[in-house]
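Model it.
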Amino acid sequence: MKVLVTGGAGYIGSHTVVLLIEAGYEVVVFDNFSNASKESIRRVEAIVGKKIVVVEGDIRYREDLAKVFSSHKIDAVIHFAGLKAVGESVEQPLRYYDNNVNGSVVLCEVMSEYNCKSIIFSSSATVYGDPHTTPILEDFPLSATNPYGRSKLMVEEILRDVYLSDNEWKIVLLRYFNPVGAHASGTIGEDPNGLPNNLMPFISQTAVGKREYLSVFGNDYDTVDGTGVRDYIHVIDLAQGHLNALDRIRNFNEPMTINLGTGNGYSVLEMVEAFEKASAKKVPYKIVERRVGDIATCFADPSYAKEVLDWEATRGIDEMCEDTWRWQSQNPNGYII
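Modeled.
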């Protein structure tokens, strides 16, 4: 089976490409490298011991996608490509809707033109907004609170409409919780451009000395220690979820919406403590004001993923922190050589 991985040079994409190739899939990576590095592809090639077919292009441009589909018989698409910073999406909503929503529409149009009708979409737990209870089930009300989350929700709805118009489509919508960690080799990992969007790069960059301290946004939530609780999932477990979905996609007779999380929530300070243990480094932090829109607790009920994908997360908080530290300590400046 030949799989097109859009955004395959990015954090989750690159780790998924490693597992796909190791599992025997043929892979074509499609990326415009706007928030990813070509160095990540070179390092993936070193891990898997083979050259990877890479096409540089933008999902918004039909001619770029047509180059791929006309040159390769693509059987399925794993669609990671998209802008992903919540704060930036609030400042630049039209850019996010153009890239994430319009780009996905163009991708589906070209897929249909070339009779490729299997897609696994990279969605997000942000589509749940502020859930009233936890753990979060797939049938919870949806209420994204920012343009990034709304763009994910819009694409989910578009894909469901595509299926209603043509039942030959096979669609899996994977809602991620909080990816962390890195490949066990320390060769590839999360390398955010500029200011990180997520907690773990802030922690690891503080531990490695790139940042003076970690800002902890609020310590008065109704949680174990007053700091926000999230469901952190190792990126390799997350990548494996895509392989399990790909293995089973032909068996699904309707679009499948599936949470990928661990079912466990950890607070910011619990993550700091675990990272200090893994790195043997102190992570200084300061408590600052809450951020607007942040919620106290968010973690998944992953039981449906176990039922339909035979998938569950196997890596705990210690391994997440150890692998993150190995990546960050070996690559203090990320992919910049």
